[in-house]
């Protein structure tokens, strides 16, 4: 009989005194049941979406190390005016890590053929030595593909493909993406180039613009450029984009994109004080700027701004679409969806103040991978 | 044979020098063709939606009378920073007035039975002595109903009914309305009471709250009250509202309503940093505050904010729904959809500075009717 497996699991806990503490809990996993596997985690990326749970609204600059060498902790302070946002998680020791990859070390009787296989995984609690999960939440990698290759095969690839699916399902033919030099943005650019879909890439610096142009991007606009508004209008008009995906959330950029779409739509139309009847959609999928979304409604009434999340999208799209997207990710894992990591760290290292400061910055081009074996 | 008809038509014109001028143009209408009628206008309400075209972004305090007794004008200045919003209507002499009522004085050969009938009308250019339009854009009033009774039988009644239709079509069971003491809001309150639909009425003063309570409203919250946030949360939770219609547009109120919905949805749910999966909808249908919409995204990702307009709604809903709604308005014209006017003015009076200042204020309880015969 299979034995239970014991190991560490990274946790984030908010307490009533306004602190947030990262720690390594010791957890024991019972043997896998039918349809279940236990995976020895070998690679798990630190995604922006993980930082939301890991750090939440705490002040990153306030990090103070504690605990012991065996059981280190890192404690941060949450500014008083932001504590309301985490009231619902008070006292809960929450595991972190949306996705990862590793080797199957135990499996239920009906999925025993998976033992020894390298798999990519989705489902949370991946910043851990071991993860027990349903075999259906794993994808077996091809021969020669490493755990690092498969560590990030869910969140970014399925999100990028999800944008294109959403665009088509809602009747649009071209799209805008912001923070477009991100790994997600680069993958989206490769998808759109391969599929012949016009994409407007909005970036925040000349270096990011160059990165995308070097990758063959057709439309790149830089918010730091003097002529940003005009360049955005021109690119939106040329591409025909009427849907946008925004990773930033706060500020006026989303509304400016809608205004650019409206300018293109009403160019040769008769005046209507209600604006054009061309429907314009903005989806917010990230919160690089957690401040308020400021919408200057200068684009009539045919518009919508809403939230976009991967899991509700997949649920709504159904099993057939999800299966098709997963198959494409597996086929193009080391090309379209290749992810390069700037640094690999261990579980305990993630709690060291200077390492924490480095991955918390979310700098473009920097991407951290956790390998619990280190 | 029918002869052509000549009369006055109120016009609004923006010029390149940044002025907006109201004037009375002399127009001649050719005899009606098949399916057409000419109506002598006897009553046309000044709706907030008319003021958007009539006054636009001009400074109301800048009004200067001009012209002659026969052909008066009223000229206003548009502040430089708002001129971009009207660039598309430069130099166009635009007729005004969404709806009205009057007596049919001429008709095409196939609709001759309408001559002499009192009808309500929709279609613009109603601030005029005469209006030629399709008979299908008219509703014949019942015996005993006056032109004043039927002057406002389209915009407010169909909008209020449209909110309820939209709520049901999108799977919601209760709704929120802002500026709820407006004529539209009062009509919506009567519809919801009659149909057993929970409605949260958001108003801006104790007097408005009393007005709605006197009309039997169940949930009334006052933004000027100290406990507004708590009262809003309680009313939204009690009603179960997950869709809101907002006449104000600018500021933070819309986002506060979404946050109240989220608080109700996540009350007994496990913590998720992505928020609840209860979908929350906010529709902006007016712009009492033309400033930016400020959305503090404290309510996860399952939300949407968009524009709502009557005509696109009717078009999408289809002829059957539109016919059903029109029939209800006609049946309940002097009860559910009764509109009381505080003052009746003539066409030329609308161009007098002190009269203009009075109807431009959009004060609750004040409602102006134009009767071109005066």
From TrEMBL, chains A, B:
One Pfam family it belongs to: ADH_zinc_N
Ranges where the Alcohol dehydrogenase-like C-terminal domain occurs: 185-252
Gene Ontology terms, MF aspect: NADPH binding; oxidoreductase activity, acting on NAD(P)H
SUPFAM superfamilies: GroES-like, NAD(P)-binding Rossmann-fold domains
RNA-binding found in the keyword field: no
Keywords: NADP, Oxidoreductase
Gene3D superfamilies: Medium-chain alcohol dehydrogenases, catalytic domain, NAD(P)-binding Rossmann-like Domain
Protein name (Swiss-Prot/TrEMBL): NADPH:quinone reductase
Lineage, top ranks: Bacteria, Pseudomonadati, Pseudomonadota, Alphaproteobacteria, Sphingomonadales
């Amino acid at each position: 009989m299979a034995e239970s497996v014991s190991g560490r699991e990274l946790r984030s806990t908010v307490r009533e005194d306004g602190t947030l503490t990262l720690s390594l809990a010791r957890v024991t996993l019972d043997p896998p049941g039918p349809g279940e596997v236990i995976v020895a985690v070998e690679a798990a990326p630190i995604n922006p979406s993980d930082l939301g749970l890991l750090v939440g609204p705490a002040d990153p600059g306030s990090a103070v190390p504690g605990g012991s060498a065996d059981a280190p902790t890192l404690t941060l302070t949450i500014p008083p005016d932001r504590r309301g946002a985490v009231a619902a998680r008070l006292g809960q020791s929450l595991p972190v890590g949306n996705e990862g990859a590793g080797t199957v070390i135990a499996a239920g009787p009906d999925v025993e053929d998976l033992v020894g296989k390298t798999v990519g995984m989705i489902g949370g609690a991946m910043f851990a030595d071991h993860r027990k999960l349903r075999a259906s939440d794993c994808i077996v990698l091809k021969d020669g593909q490493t755990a690092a290759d498969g560590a990030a095969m869910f969140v970014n690839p399925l999100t990028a493909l999800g944008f294109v699916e959403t665009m088509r399902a809602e009747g649009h033919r071209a799209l805008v993406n912001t923070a477009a030099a991100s790994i997600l943005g680069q993958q989206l650019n490769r998808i759109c180039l391969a599929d012949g879909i016009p994409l407007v890439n909005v970036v925040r610096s000349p270096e990011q613009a160059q990165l995308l142009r070097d990758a063959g991007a057709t439309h790149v606009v830089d918010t730091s450029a003097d002529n940003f508004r005009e360049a955005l209008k021109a690119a939106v008009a040329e591409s025909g984009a009427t849907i946008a995906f925004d990773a930033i959330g706060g500020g006026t950029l989303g509304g400016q994109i809608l205004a650019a779409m409206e300018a293109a739509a009403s160019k040769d139309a008769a005046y209507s004080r209600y604006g054009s009847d061309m429907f314009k959609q903005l989806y917010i999928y990230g919160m690089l700027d957690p401040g308020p979304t400021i919408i200057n409604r200068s684009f009539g009434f045919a518009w919508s701004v809403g939230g976009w999340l991967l899991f509700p999208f997949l649920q709504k799209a159904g099993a057939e679409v999800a299966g098709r997207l997963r198959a494409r990710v597996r086929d193009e894992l080391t090309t379209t969806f290749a992810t390069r990591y700037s640094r690999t760290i261990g579980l305990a290292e993630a709690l060291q103040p200077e390492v924490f400061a480095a991955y918390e910055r979310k700098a473009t081009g920097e991407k951290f991978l956790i390998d619990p074996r280190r």
